[in-house]
Amino acid sequence: MQTLTTVAALTDILEGLRHNGRTIGLVPTMGALHQGHLSLIKRCVAENDCCVASVFVNPTQFNDPKDLETYPRTPEADALMLEEAGCDYLFMPSVEEVYPTPDTRQFSFGALETVMEGAYRPGHFNGVAQVVSRLFELVKPHKAYFGEKDFQQLAIIRAMVAQLGMNIDIVACPIIRETDGLAMSSRNKRLTPKQREKAPLIADILVKSRTFARENSVEATIRYVSERLRPEDGFKLDYMAIVDGRTLQAVEDWAETDYIVGCVAVYCGPVRLIDNIVYKHAD
Ligand code: PAF
């Protein structure tokens, strides 16, 4: 694996590969890699001639400066894991390299961005669109890989690619969980042992809510989850939403659409975690 820190080195190498007819896959990350990321890397390696991973903690997507400051950074371990997973190129640029001048672009994703994360983290998805579009312009991948844990992010990136007319196949990859069910996340590293012990309750409650949902209304299911993420266990709920899996708009009735997902954002101590569960998907 080769590590590249400049746009010039990256574009130079990738132009050569493209010229030789090689397919390029991209896995954008913010580092602090875990098995969830590695599942994206392995899929990217299997499906493309060349796998590029980026590790860049993008400042423009953090609406909370404290969150940016405390975001875990483990560059050496990341490089080692990527190399072992078969990644070909690691792009690890500085902020100045990605944003030589401040990115003032304003994206608009309509109703997709006014709900859930978009409502609780103003400006977050604009920052995600800025950095992902920049990475797409630099790498020009044939395919790009994203985890389904960030369910709304995936919808936003698909919308962005459509808006910008980019010919990139966005590949959604399933959530990877710890053995106790906790969705893998770089933020899990910040949990204290006590919080880490409680955190799997999030997935546990979501799974149980799927059984509950079979005999109960959407409203009651939202209540079921919300009431079980209790402050006594160290949780503070931002939202539990049950939405159409395509439009991300709240549904009121299970019969309303054929694709329904429950999305939750909850603080476990000071660490904000997200997770989701599919209630209904007619494939
Ligand atoms: O999901 C993430 O880690 C980030 O939002 C992404 C897509 C790498 C953009 O910074």
Distinctive features:
283 residues, binds pantoate, Pantoate--beta-alanine Ligase, Chain: A,domain 2, six-stranded parallel β-sheet, single chain, alpha/beta, three-stranded antiparallel β-sheet, Rossmann fold
Describe this structure in words.
- Helix content is 40%, strand content 21%.
- With 283 residues, it is an alpha/beta fold.
- The strands form two sheets. Strands 1-4-3-2-5-6 form a six-stranded parallel beta sheet, sandwiched between helices.
- It is globular, with a radius of gyration of 19 Å.
- Pantoate is lined by residues 28-30, 58, 61, 128, 131-132, 150, 153.
Write the layout of secondary structure elements.
Layout: E1 2-4, H1 7-19, E2 24-29, H2 35-47, E3 50-55, H3 65-70, H4 75-85, E4 89-91, H5 95-98, H6 116-120, H7 124-139, E5 143-147, H8 151-164, E6 169-173, H9 193-198, H10 201-213, H11 218-228, E7 235-244, E8 259-268, E9 271-281
Parallel strand pairs: 1-4, 2-3, 2-5, 3-4, 5-6
Antiparallel strand pairs: 7-8, 8-9
Helix pairs in contact: 7-8, 10-11
The structure holds pantoate.
